[in-house]
TrEMBL record:
Pfam families: LMF1. The keyword Membrane applies. This is Lipase maturation factor. InterPro entries: LMF, LMF1/2_N. It is a multi-pass membrane protein. It comes from Pygoscelis papua (Gentoo penguin). The lineage of its organism: Eukaryota, Metazoa, Chordata, Craniata, Vertebrata.
Length: 360
């Protein structure tokens, strides 16, 4: 906070919170003669990174509508953004030349990626999590190409890696178990689990498409060859929906974390050797307790998106948050709450002259 308003933006708070989580995620190698890169409880602490990514993206999408900014509600925000942002890139000029119907559709896509897709971060189906990963990366790459926000977008992409698994990253590095995977995929007839997983995945994509069409009135105008879109819900309807889903989202996060903790406990039981089993269990207990504590205090800034839900949290959680608030290890987020530069923006122009006649 020494920089005051000059270094007190949300991406600075995000860097601070991500840095603190790195302390929990990084390996703690006390017994170096038996140290390995993998630990039984790694999934528990790494889950906090996914939870941070969820809070960041979901809140950033929600506040665009709760702020009542007319450009976000009119889907015209990007007709201003590329031109009026602080440090545009050369790509921003080209993006600004795109037709208005495409700019409005881009706002709809932003809402889908920031509000709907983050729910898939906790999906039990691996391919849905991969779809969510590539959606977030696509959004951040497009922002990088059209605007300069320093480390923020790169850090968000790093947080998105919490959605991946070792097998998928192994494909990038050429270490994938392709033979085993291909033999399973070619099995016929497919197992009931595979069929249900595929049906649920396709249903999810279908629901996302249906939700997008219904909520944003997507229609193709064949005569004008454009895609028309408009917000098909009111502010009251949105806030009512937000109030209804905020606490269930907390419950979803708790269930997902509980699954990670129980899975880690099972992995501890599978460790060979009595001593190493106890050592793994001790580490699991310490890091699981820290993770639950971090999750609990993060609920306070997360529920700022709906103050009624915030007031329903257990008072003990508020007391825990108040005790550590000054360290800012958890924060509230909500990027681009209102579109800047809609009515123009003041610019400082410096001019000089050698002859007091011609000014440059």
């Amino acid at each position: 906070q020494v920089g005051q308003v000059f270094l007190y933006f949300q991406w600075d708070s995000l860097l601070l919170e991500a840095g603190f989580l790195a302390v929990l995620v990084a390996p703690l190698r006390l017994l170096k003669w038996r140290s390995t890169a993998w630990r039984a409880h790694d999934g528990v602490t790494f889950w906090l990174v996914r939870w941070l990514l969820f809070r960041l993206m979901f809140a950033s999408g929600v506040v665009k509508l709760t702020s009542r900014c007319p450009t976000w509600w009119g889907l015209t925000a990007l007709t201003y953004h590329y031109e009026t942002q602080c440090i545009p890139t050369p790509g921003a000029w080209f993006a600004h030349q795109l037709p208005v119907w495409f700019q409005k559709f881009s706002v709809v896509a932003t809402y889908v990626i920031e509000i709907a897709v983050p729910l898939l971060f906790f999906a039990p189906i691996r391919r849905l999590r991969l779809f969510a990963f590539y959606s977030q990366v696509l959004l951040q790459v497009l922002i990088i190409l059209t605007g300069n926000y320093n480390f923020f977008n790169m850090l968000t992409i790093v947080l998105a890696f919490s959605l991946l698994d070792e097998e998928h990253v192994g494909r990038w590095l050429g270490r994938s178990k392709r033979k085993h995977a291909s033999s399973e995929s070619l099995a016929w007839p497919p197992s009931l689990r595979a069929v249900l997983s595929t049906l649920l995945e396709l249903s999810t994509y279908g629901f996302l498409l249906y939700w997008s069409v219904q909520c944003f009135g997507l229609e193709i105008d064949w005569e004008k060859r454009l895609l028309d879109s408009k917000v098909a819900f009111t502010y009251h309807e949105f806030t009512t929906w937000l109030r209804a889903v905020t606490l269930p989202l907390v419950g979803l996060g708790f269930l997902s974390l509980s699954w990670e903790i129980l899975s880690a406990m099972y992995r501890c039981a599978c460790v060979r050797g009595c001593f190493w089993k106890l050592w793994a269990t001790l580490q699991w207990a310490i890091f699981a307790t820290a993770t639950v504590g971090m999750f609990a205090i993060s609920l306070v800034p997360f529920t700022y998106i709906d103050y009624e839900s915030n007031g329903k949290l257990w008072p003990g959680i508020h007391q825990m948050f108040n005790a550590v608030e000054r360290f800012q290890v958890v924060n509230s987020y909500g990027l681009f709450r209102r579109m800047t530069g809609v009515g123009g923006r003041p610019e400082v122009v410096l001019e000089g002259s050698y002859d007091k006649q011609t000014w440059t």
